[in-house]
Amino acid sequence: MTSYVLCRLVKTREQKHFVLLITSYIFYAYWDARFLLLLILQTYISYLLAKQIERTDSRQKAKRWMLLGVSISLAILGFFKYFNFFVQSFADLFGITSLGALNIILPVGISFYTFQALSYLIDVYRGKLKACDRFLKISLYISFFPQLVAGPIVRASDFLPQLEEDRPMNRENLVEGLQIFLFGLIKKIVIADQLAVCVDAVFATPGSYSGLSLALAVVAYSIQIYCDFSGYSDMAIGIAKTFGYELCKNFDMPYLSKNPTEFWQRWHISLSTWLRDYLYIPLGGNRKGKLRTKINLMLTMLLGGLWHGANWQMVFWGALHGGALVAHKTALEVSRKHDIHVENRVLKRIVTALSVIGMYLFTCVCWVFFRAQSFTDAITILTRIFTGAAGVRYYFIYTFIFAGIIGIASAIGALKNKGHGYYPILNLSKFWPKVVLILVILLTLMFFYAGDTAFIYFQF
Amino acid sequence: MKKPIKTLLSWCLAAVISLLIANLISFFYRSGAGSIPRENAFSTSIRTPNSRMVRGSEGYGINHVDENGYLNDDTLPLKDNYILMMGSSHAEGLQVMQKDNMVSLLNNWIDPSARTVYNLGTAGYTLPLIIQGFQAGLQEFPHASAVMIEISQLDFSTEELTEAMDQTQYDPACSGQTLMQSLDSGWRARNQILEFVPLISLLRQQFDSMNLSMKDAFGINDFIEAQHARALSVSGAQAATKSEENAPLNDATDADAYANALNQALALMRAEFSGPIILLYHAGVSALPDGTIRIDRDMRYYDDYLASCEQNGIVFVDTGDAFLRAYEADYSLPYGFSNTTMPSGHLNRIGHRIVAEEFYKAWLKIQEEEKN
To answer: Could you read off the pLDDT of B40-61 as tens digits, one per residue?
Structure first.
């Protein structure tokens, strides 16, 4: 709020950027002041090397500067996030009892701001945008506090041009931004945090619970992770909007996806497009034949899984989605080759409904590996679900309540916005929307989960 | 009318309507929170007499508060000689419907036509507090023919048990009915407001539960914890040596002191009441990764309780085995609810039933012995 007031009071765009930058650094330091220096270092490296890339007249030299920047950034990320993982994996592979592990703390948001820094460097190299002439702008882009710690992964080509304009901090942006923020806040502190109560308990001792209880806990987790992550994205988008900036949409009703390809166009959109543009396409994309396309897809998803966490479970989760994407691509090729398609309208709707349900169930199976504390636990959970094992009957009531709410919201979105997400912005010039807004705020205060839970994606 | 004033009025009216709707919802989720503090009686506070309490954050319970300020369904008359149920929030049973709590079940089994058991369960009342108010409780309710005490923990300090021997003296002016009549206008108004605007206590509870500590800001907490850990690893080696030398003597002295204090406290209860006393202990339950459960009995003091109860003619009941049997039969757990986690928190319907069954079995055994 102080930052907003100051931004309204300052006279120039540069002053506004300065206020936002200081706010962002204070915001980051709130989590851990030690790693603020790392953030500034990462920013400075990107700033310097981007300028070098632009100054160089030789394409080859520019490529070397770009690769240097990418290597340094990935090395920093690799050290903090993956060092112990690789050491342990090496030790396990060769049966070495202990190679020792360093007590490395994972800086909050490192995966996000590293990817942003990389996107900046690569886009400058590709000529997509010009290097920032001022350190202030690149710093603000990388450390902009709404999206710093858990995304969305904002592209430099989307955000830096906005810094060149006088972005309006007017009443409309404030009202709309705050409503989007509230929407995200409700998803996080009312829905996600409440469901975490059930999910944490069940996933801690899955062997105790009945198959149905486990299935409901998996559904609860699918809602929890969606609301936790999309809630944070909404809060980031909302706050950015109050300052006049537009951040990209990061979720688009992903559980309405009919197939894996569509899922990754709707889930964590900023990451999937980043991986597409900076990993999949440079690997060759779909330009090098069918087999290579599938290999590229699989590699991208494996690395995408690894991005989520330094353990083999995450890699496996990525592999499952990679496999699904490959299978979908193959199915499309076969159906095109043999001209397989559904003509009948009713049948088409049934197929669509079944596809949506099937994709949701597959996503839930993948979430089991994502969330379970070990492979063994994941297998235990799935086995107990599919065999209908007996155990403690624990049917968390909020799973049903929130599944119903999400279901209704999805149905409205499907009808009102052709299957795409939307923000329910209230027209506060009318009376009843005012009642709805105040009532929603009161209900949030009444039912938010008051315990202690962090954002799931903070750990990435 | 000027636009700003019109806008302001519009927002105020919207706020009023929203508050009314939210308050209405609160009636069904959390309402009836007023309490009256008092000094010279069994408990240091009672609920607002002749009111209703609804609690929905852990389990779901609608409970009637009687004229004495305790949670009793007074539809049926209370017998001339009754059993007093003393205990904590588990006995109070706010998390279940009143008809499902241990007292109602006992009443139904002993005699469905009249109430035999009177519930004095009070949140936070562990054994030392129960002992401290024991005499006052018997004076406030002088026709008790037996006492049942529900406890869920055994670990108290020797000092707590010793202090409990300093018995509260009952003052009839502190009875529920008298207190209600003598309540000052301030408390009356407060309780009325809380009764008609339950939203206030719900919001207060929410904010009281929040952790708004700044200690995690700036990584300070990590540094402090890391430094503590370093300090402990240095002093730990020194302390370990010292504790190895002193342990046997210190532990034995502490254990004896505890056993003595416990025995004296239970002996005091026995001296104040000659009728049957049943002390029921229900330990916590933990779910284990292999699908079994563990009864978390506090074995440090368990034998002391067994010995002291036997010495003072108090029946000691442990529900641990009953909990295990229920789990083995159909995976039933005595704690936890569909809106919290299992098996944690308060006794649920199943837990109340198991506890009531154990109390009932002990009661029948006493009756049998008295007949013989």
So the answer is: 899 999 999 999 999 999 999 9
Are residues B209 and A448, on separate chains, in Cβ contact within 8 Å? no
- Asked if residues B174 and B39 have their Cβ atoms less than 8 Å apart, the reply is yes
Q: Are B195 and B48 in contact (CB under 8 A)?
A: yes
Q: Give the closest-approach CA distance of B39 to chain A in angstroms.
A: 33
Write out chain B residues lying below 8 Å of A30, CB-based. 217-218
* pLDDT value, residue B279: 97
Tell me which chain B residues have a C-beta less than 8 angstroms from the C-beta of A452. Answer: 211
* Cβ contact B203–A446 (<8 Å): yes
Q: Which residues fall within 8 angstroms of residue A169, CB to CB, at 6 or more apart?
A: A4, A7, A8, A242, A243, A244
User: Which residues of A are tagged catalytic?
Assistant: 308
Inter-chain CB proximity B287 and A205 less than 8 Å: yes
Q: How close, in Å, is residue B153 to chain A by CA atoms? A: 23
pLDDT in tens, A56-81: 888 899 999 999 999 999 998 888 88
Q: Using an 8 Å Cβ cutoff, are B103 and B64 in contact?
A: no
**Residue (of A382, A386, A385) closest to A320 by Cα position:** A382
Report all structural domains of chain B as residue ranges with CATH numbers, in order of start: 73-175+261-371 (3.40.50.1110)
A1-15 confidence digits (pLDDT tens): 888 888 888 888 888
According to the model, what pLDDT value does residue B243 have? 41
Q: Kindly report the pTM of this predicted structure.
A: 0.89
Of A198, A391, A439, the CB nearest to B331: A391
The ipTM estimated for the assembled molecules is 0.85
What is the model's pLDDT at position B245? 39
Question: pLDDT class for A261, splitting at 50, 70, 90?
Answer: very high
Bridge-based pairing state of the strands B144-151 and B293-296: unpaired
- Cβ contacts (< 8 Å) between B210 and chain A: which residues? 450
Q: Which residues on neighbouring strands pair with residue B318, listed in sequence order?
A: B281
Cβ-nearest to B202 among A210, A396, A446: A446
